[in-house]
Amino acid sequence: MSVKAKAIYTFQSENKEEISIQENEELVIFDKNSVDGWFQGENSRGEKGLFPASYVEIIRSRSNSNVTDCSISPAGSLGNDSSYFPSTPNTSLHLQQSYYDDDDDDWDDWDDRSTVVDDADPSRSPGANGHAHQSPLSYNPNVHYRPKPHMERQDSISSSRKGSMVGRNLNRFSSFVRSGVEAFVLGDVPMMAKIAESYTIDMGPTGPLWKESPQPFSCSIEDPTKQTKFKGIKTYISYRVTPSHTGRPVYRRYKHFDWLYNRLLHKFTVISVPHLPEKQATGRFEEDFIEKRKRRLILWMNHMTSHPVLSQYEGFEHFLMCADDKQWKLGKRRAEKDEMVGAHFMLTLQIPNEHQDLQDVEERIDTFKAFAKKMDDSVMQLTHVASELVRKHLGGFRKEFQRLGNSFQSISQAFTLDPPHSSEALNKAISHTGRTYENIGEMFAEQPKYDLFLMLDKLSLYQGLLANFPDIIHLQKGAFAKVKESQRMSDEGKMDQDEADGIRKRCRTVGFALQAEMSHFHHQREVDFKDMMQAYLTEQIAFYQRVVQQLERTLRMYDCL
Q: Residue 133 and residue 555: Cα distance in Å, rounded?
C-alpha cells in the first residue's frame, strides 16, 4: 500500500534505478517495507525509482499517530544511518551472471544449502566495476556498540557533539556509502574487541607500499578434466590446483573460483580484485574455450599469489588447501561469516607514522586517475588491434597465402602442357614454391595461439583491474570531501576540532591504503608488461625464422637448375 513520506536529507541519484530527492520534498512510497534499506517510490517531479530508506520519514495519518514516524530500518541494522545499508544491486547484471554461471547447480556436494551464498543474497552482489555492496551489520558479541538517541549517527565521538551532521548536507557518494568507507571515515564503525588479522603499510621510496608477504608462494592450475556426476546428469570441468608451499593438489571447479572471487569483493573494499575469466552459456566444453579459460585462470591466480594482502586472506588459503568435503563446508561458512569486511577491513590496516599532506595525496591520486584512464584507453585500443590481427591471421592471411600458392601451382601445371619444351626440375621447384606458401598460410593461422592469444589474455586481466579503480578512487574522493567539510564546520564553530581531527586521521588510513594499492599496481604492471612484450617478440622472431627457413629450403631448389 502506498504511503506518503518526506525527505529529511538530500540524495543525488547515480544510476538509472535511483531517483534524486531534495530535503523536505514530499514523496510517495509504494511499499513502506524497505528492501535492503531502500524504498521504491515517486518524487514530486513524477520520477519513479529507489532512494535510501534512512533519508526519509513516513508521514502517518492523524488517526494512527500525532507524530511523524521515522523510516523503518531493516532488522539487525544500527540505527538509521544509510552507511550501513547496501544499494539495490544491478538487477540485469545479477540475472545475467546467474544465467551464465555455467557451473551452478543445486546438487553440488561442495556446497551447503543452509549457508548463505552470494548469488542468493542480493545485498552481496557485485556493485559498479566489480566492488561489492555491503550488507547491514548484525549484532555481534565482540563488537562494542554504544547507545545512541533515535535518528543520530553511531559515532566514536559522543552523540551530543555538534559534528553529528557531517556529511548529511553533502551529495551522497553512493559507492562511498555502500562500501562502508564513509562510515569508517566518520567514525561510525564500532571497534572490535579483538582483531585477529592485520595488514601493514610501509613507507617506501616512492610512497606507501603493502608489506610483502612473509611466505610468498606461487600456484599452478593444470589438467582441466571433464567430469560428470549423478550418472551423467551434471557435467563440469575440474582443474588441478597446486600451491607451491604445500605441493599438495586440490581440485576445483569454476564455481569455486567464483565463490572465492565474491568473498574477495565483499572483504577488500580498497583493493582492485582481478576479474575472473568470463562465463559462457554454450560451448563450455569445447577444447578452445577450456584452454582459454585455463590460461586466464592461471593469470588470475598469479595476480592473487603476488598480491601481499590478497595472498594472505584466510579464505584464499582455505580455497588452496582444503581437500576434505566436510572441512570445505566449515571453512566456507567461516569465510562467509567473516566480520572484518568492507568498513571493518579498514580497522585491520596498520599505517606508517610519516606525515602526508592531504593536498599532496589528492594531487597524486588525481595523477594516477589520469594515468589509469589513459592506460585503460590504450589497453582497449591494443586489444582491438590485436583481436583484428588474430582475425586476419585466421582468415585473411591464410587465404592470401593459399591464393598465392595456388597461383604458383597453376603456373607449374601450365608448364607441363607442352612436354618437349617443359623443364621437370623447374616445374617441381615452382610447384614446391606453391606448397610452401600454402604451408606458410597455415603457419599464420596457427601462430596466434603462441603470441596474440597470450597478449589478449594479459590485456583482459588489466582491463578488469583498471575497471575497478574509478570506484576505489571515488572512495578516497569521498573521504577528502568529508575532511574538507568537517574542517569548515570546525572553523565555523559547528564541530569540535577533535572530531574533525579524527575524520582527518581516518581519511589518512584510506589514503595510505589506496596509495599502497596504486604502488602495487605499478610494480606488477612493470613485471607483467615486460614479460608480455618479451614473450610476444620472442614468439614473433621464432615464427618469422620458421617462415625464413621454409623459404630458404625452397630457394635452394632453384640453385640446381
A: 66
